[in-house]
């Protein structure tokens, strides 16, 4: 998730499953968007109820 201390380029996209929403930070370039999105897609730890 985004942290107020970090620039958008240092954060990753995240999703909310209850609203089926993908939240994307305002990246400074399409290249960074692609890198962060592909990385996030590859990190599939599964779904856990907290």
Automatic annotation (TrEMBL):
Keyword entries, A-Z: Transferase, Ubl conjugation pathway
Reactions mediated catalytically: S-ubiquitinyl-[E2 ubiquitin-conjugating enzyme]-L-cysteine + [acceptor protein]-L-lysine = [E2 ubiquitin-conjugating enzyme]-L-cysteine + N(6)-ubiquitinyl-[acceptor protein]-L-lysine
Xref: Gene3D superfamilies: Hect, E3 ligase catalytic domain
GO biological process: one example: ubiquitin-dependent protein catabolic process
Statement: the UniProt record of this protein carries the keyword DNA-binding: no
Catalytic site: 18 (glycyl thioester intermediate)
EC number(s) on file: 2.3.2.26
GO MF annotations, alphabetized: ubiquitin protein ligase activity
Keyword field contains Transferase: yes
Segments passing through the bilayer: none
Top-level taxon: Eukaryota
UniProt domain HECT: residue ranges: 1-50
Protein name in UniProt: HECT-type E3 ubiquitin transferase
Protein's organism: Malurus cyaneus samueli
């Amino acid at each position: 998730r985004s942290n107020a201390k970090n620039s958008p380029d240092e954060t990753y996209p995240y999703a909310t499953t209850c609203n089926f929403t993908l939240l994307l930070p305002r990246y400074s370039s399409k290249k960074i968007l692609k890198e962060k999105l592909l990385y996030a897609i590859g990190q599939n730890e599964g779904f856990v109820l907290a």
